[in-house]
Amino acid sequence: MKAVALTGPQRLEVIDVPSPKLSSDKDVLLKIERVGVCGSDLHYFEHGRIGSRVVRPPFIPGHECSGIVVEIGAAVTRVKQGQRVAVDPAMSCGQCDQCLSGRPHTCRNLRFLGCPGESDGALCEWLVMPEACLYPADERLSADQVALCEPLSIGMYAVRLSQLTAGASVLILGSGPIGLCVYCAARSAGAGEVCMTDLVEERIQFAKKMGADWSGNAAKQDMVALLRQRRPEGFDVAFECAGKQSTLDEAVELLKPGGKIVIVGIPREDRVSFPIDLLRRKELAIINVRRQNHCVRPALDAVASGSVPVERLATHWFPPEGAQAAFEMVRDYRDGVIKAMIVFA
């Protein structure tokens, strides 16, 4: 089958690899339709690693995907042939202490699509996944909508972890796809005023179009001064979605005492820091988000209800042969790209 693989630093090529086959009676064979280019994919493309996860070429990235069920194992009951499904890319063992305590996303034996050392990814024509990772989609949902439920599930999980209350003031630092998914989830949860920041003007304007109450360019304006003027009392919750030291610092400055910093972005650096005096005096809580937990189904349901217009995040489409151009566009923030989609079918 055809697959898109990292064959060197910042180099993607279409290669031929063996087609996958069912190896368990709980396995499902999918024909991949769409794969979104994620920020973590970009880390592997640009830097060849995220922390201890190091790419060994050739390596197939990608995990935000939708597909059509083609073949099912003898014991599969959750999905049926011909269904469009959303894919939870986290394959957990179901037996370790984390899985048994309701935390399959931090499974001791986790295998994640498109994660070096764990599993090749979804940028390929066919994919075999365990039945437990698949969620049938409402037949009205498009391939793009279903694929985008993976990043939306992360936004929903981040909001769930924050224990956001109705009317709470929200600051989202970073208006890329994940920041916008957090925005959608926060609105759905009843957030009050939502302010967003970014360094890319097109994304700031996109946040406004999505309905953000205020959005500003941190490259051109003093975010702390502007937002202190707007909300002197501070924000209830700050979602850090950029993976930057500067945005972590802004979150500490702009939260009210007793506020929460929810870290969703993935920093390139191995270490980040906090001004401990201010963090302690404000008694701020720091919450880390590890992908998502039990939020794919709620994401699908929210999109099917029409309350979350996640399809608006898909802005550019490329064939597999255009994956290099797609990744470069996302890397360089060109042409107002929010989410680039690789189209297999």
State the secondary-structure class.
Answer: alpha/beta
CATH class of the largest domain: Alpha Beta
- How many separate domains? 2
Provide the CATH architecture of the largest domain: Alpha-Beta Complex
User: Globular, elongated, flat, extended or rod-shaped: what is the shape?
Assistant: globular
Number of helical segments with 4 or more residues: 10
Q: Low-confidence stretches at least 5 residues in length (pLDDT < 50)? A: none
CATH superfamily of the largest domain: Medium-chain alcohol dehydrogenases, catalytic domain
* Strand/helix succession: EEEHEEEEEHEEEHEHEHEHEHEHEHEHE
Helix share, percent:
25-40%
From the structure provided, what is the oligomeric state, counting identical versus distinct chains? single chain
Question: How is the main sheet built?
Answer: 7 strands, mixed
Tell me the strand percentage band.
Answer: 25-35%
Radius of gyration: 20 Å
End-to-end CA span = 14 Å
Integer average pLDDT: 97
Instruction: Please name the CATH topology of the largest domain.
Output: Quinone Oxidoreductase, Chain A, domain 1
- Based on DSSP secondary structure assignment, what is the total number of beta strands? 19
Provide a descriptive summary of the structure in words.
By secondary structure, this protein is α/β, with parallel strands linked by helices. The chain folds into two domains: 2-136 and 309-343, Medium-chain alcohol dehydrogenases, catalytic domain (Quinone Oxidoreductase, Chain A, domain 1); 153-288, 3-Layer(aba) Sandwich (Rossmann fold). The protein is 29% helix and 27% strand. It has helices at residues 39-47, 97-100, 143-162, 177-188, 201-210, 223-230, 245-254, 276-282, 296-305, 323-332; strands spanning 2-8, 11-16, 27-36, 49-50, 53-54, 64-72, 84-87, 90-91, 111-112, 126-130, 134-136, 170-173, 194-198, 214-217, 235-240, 255-263, 285-288, 314-318, 339-343. The strands form five sheets. Strands 3, 6, 7, 10, 11, 18 and 19 form a seven-stranded mixed β-sheet that branches. A hairpin with a 2-residue loop joins β4 and β5 (53-54). α3 crosses α4 (177-188) and α3 (143-162) packs across α9 (296-305). The radius of gyration is 20 Å and the shape is globular. The model has no long low-confidence stretch (mean pLDDT 97).
